[in-house]
Structure formats: structure tokens, C-alpha cells
């Protein structure tokens, strides 16, 4: 049995979209971040950094496999199933480049932008301008790529899943922001129409 530890955030939804796309059977354990449930010792044993998403799989013989972080979860299941990741080295190199842009640039930048522009008690123009600029840099790179290809690695892959929830959040919260990036908007609408993506975006309820 697989249990996904998650909360309704873009990083959590990368993991649930992946599992839905692969048709993996899993249980959902909601970790209430606002109530500090991620700081409890039982969750710390699963996710040493006390962040969601994390996943536990009970294996035959009583063994347990844990993994934490949306990137580790996506790569593990893509490699294990041979799906949502290209076969050829060249295509995989391109897919990994966009996958990592989602994991290490787009996600952290979007979160820091939110922290400094909305949550910070003191508004620091330098920090707001920095993260806004970095976010626009990510959007610009994605938009240019998606002007040439339908999905980030040609066919739908974990590269798309790594980026989609943060672009979906911008589509909801950012007003007409995506209108400035027409290729990114086209791709957002295409990915958002996938039934498994829609299911994954509802996890946890
Ligand atoms: N690199 C991690 C980041 C995960 C992450 O930032 N999770 C946030 C929710 S989106 C979290 O659990 N935050 C709780 C905390 O910071 O205490 C990933 O890609 O999954």
C-alpha cells in the first residue's frame, strides 16, 4: 500500500497528479501544515525536512520505503514504470532540463515571491522586485519553449507535472498575468483539461 502525505499546495499536487496519471492506487494522508502537523515526530520520520509531499510504501516482508520531495517522488515512479519520461538519452536530457526548472527555479521562486509580496510583515522592494524578475524569467523561458513544442518534452511528461501546479496557481491568483505569455497559457489550458490532472489537483479534498 502507498500512502501520500500531502496538503493542498502546488508541491503536494505534483505528487498527486503523477500518481493519478500513472493510475497508481494510493491512500491520502492530509498533513495540516497550518496546524503544524508536519512538525510531529511521526511525520519527521518520513520527511526529515518536515515538508510535504512525502510518500510511504509498504513492501512485501514488512519493509517500508519512504521518499520525500515532489522531485524524488516523480522521478522514482517515472523510472519504475518507464512512463512519463522519454526513453532516448537526448529526449531525456531535454525533459530533465525542464523538470529541474520546475523543481529548482519555478517552484521556489513562486513561493518566495508570495512570501515577500504578500506574507512578509515588512514589504522590501528589493526582494519583491528580485523574485518578480526571477518569476518572469521562468515564465519567459517556458513561454518560448512552448511556442515550439506542444509539451515541455514534446510529449506529456514529468517535466509538465513539475511546472503545472505553479502555473495553475498563477492562472487563478495572477489575474491576467498569463495573457502576457500566450504559449504558456495554451499549454496551461491543455494540461488542465487532462482528467488525471484534474483529479490530482483535488488532492487532498
Ligand atoms: N523541494 C520540495 C519542497 C516542498 C515544500 O516546500 N513543501 C511545502 C508545502 S508546498 C511545505 O511542506 N512547507 C512546510 C514548511 O515549510 O514547514 C518539493 O519539491 O516537494
Can you describe what's shown?
- It contains 8 helices and 4 strands.
- With 205 residues, it is α+β, with helices and mostly antiparallel strands.
- It has 2 domains: 81 residues, Glutaredoxin, CATH 3.40.30; 106 residues, Glutathione S-transferase Yfyf (Class Pi), Chain A, domain 2.
- A 4-stranded mixed beta sheet has the order 2-1-3-4, with helices on one face.
- The site of glutathione (GSH) has 13 residues, from helix 3 and helix 4.
- InterPro entries: Glutathione-S-Trfase_C-like, Glutathione-S-Trfase_C_sf, Glutathione_S-Trfase, Glutathione_S-Trfase_N, Thioredoxin-like_sf.
Name some characteristics of this structure.
205 residues; alpha+beta; Glutaredoxin; 2 domains; 4-stranded mixed beta sheet; 8 helices; 9% strand; binds glutathione; Glutathione_S-Trfase_N; Glutathione-S-Trfase_C-like
Give a brief rundown of this model.
The chain is an alpha+beta fold and 205 residues long. It folds into two domains: 2-82, Glutaredoxin (3-Layer(aba) Sandwich); 89-194, Glutathione S-transferase Yfyf (Class Pi), Chain A, domain 2 (Up-down Bundle).
Instruction: Assign the structural class, choosing from mainly alpha, mainly beta, alpha/beta, alpha+beta, or little secondary structure.
Output: alpha+beta
In CATH, the topology of the largest domain is named Glutathione S-transferase Yfyf (Class Pi), Chain A, domain 2
Shape: globular
The overall average pLDDT, rounded, is: 96
Q: Class of the largest domain, according to the CATH hierarchy?
A: Mainly Alpha
Distance between the termini: 20 Å
How do the strands of the widest beta sheet line up side by side? 2-1-3-4
Count of discrete alpha- or pi-helical segments spanning 4 or more residues = 8
Which percent bin holds the helix content? 55-70%
CATH architecture of the largest domain: Up-down Bundle
Low-confidence stretches: none
Number of strands: 4
Work out the strand percent: 5-15%
Q: What radius of gyration results from the CA coordinates? A: 17 Å
Number of domains: 2
Distinct ligands, ions and cofactors found in the model? glutathione
* Main β sheet profile: 4 strands, mixed
User: What's the helix-strand series?
Assistant: EHEHEEHHHHHH
Amino acid at each position: 500500500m502507498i500512502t501520500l502525505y500531502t496538503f493542498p499546495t502546488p508541491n503536494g499536487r505534483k505528487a498527486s497528479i503523477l500518481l493519478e496519471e500513472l493510475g497508481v492506487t494510493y491512500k491520502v494522508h492530509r498533513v495540516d501544515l497550518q496546524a503544524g502537523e508536519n512538525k510531529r515526530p511521526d511525520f519527521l520520520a518520513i520527511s526529515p525536512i518536515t515538508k510535504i509531499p512525502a510518500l510511504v510504501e509498504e513492501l512485501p516482508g514488512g519493509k517500508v520505503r519512504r521518499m520525500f520531495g515532489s522531485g524524488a517522488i516523480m522521478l522514482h515512479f517515472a523510472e519504475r514504470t518507464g512512463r512519463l519520461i522519454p526513453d532516448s538519452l537526448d529526449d531525456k536530457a531535454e525533459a530533465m532540463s525542464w523538470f529541474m526548472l520546475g523543481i529548482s527555479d519555478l517552484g521556489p521562486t513562486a513561493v518566495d515571491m508570495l512570501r515577500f509580496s504578500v506574507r512578509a510583515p515588512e514589504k522590501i522592494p528589493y526582494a519583491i522586485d528580485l523574485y518578480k524578475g526571477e518569476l518572469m524569467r521562468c515564465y519567459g523561458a517556458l513561454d518560448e519553449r512552448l511556442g515550439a513544442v506542444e509539451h515541455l518534452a514534446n510529449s506529456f511528461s514529468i517535466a509538465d507535472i513539475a511546472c503545472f501546479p505553479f502555473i495553475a496557481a498563477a492562472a487563478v491568483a495572477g489575474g491576467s498575468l498569463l495573457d502576457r505569455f500566450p504559449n504558456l497559457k495554451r499549454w496551461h489550458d491543455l494540461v488542465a483539461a487532462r482528467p488525471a490532472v484534474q483529479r490530482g489537483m483535488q488532492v487532498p479534498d
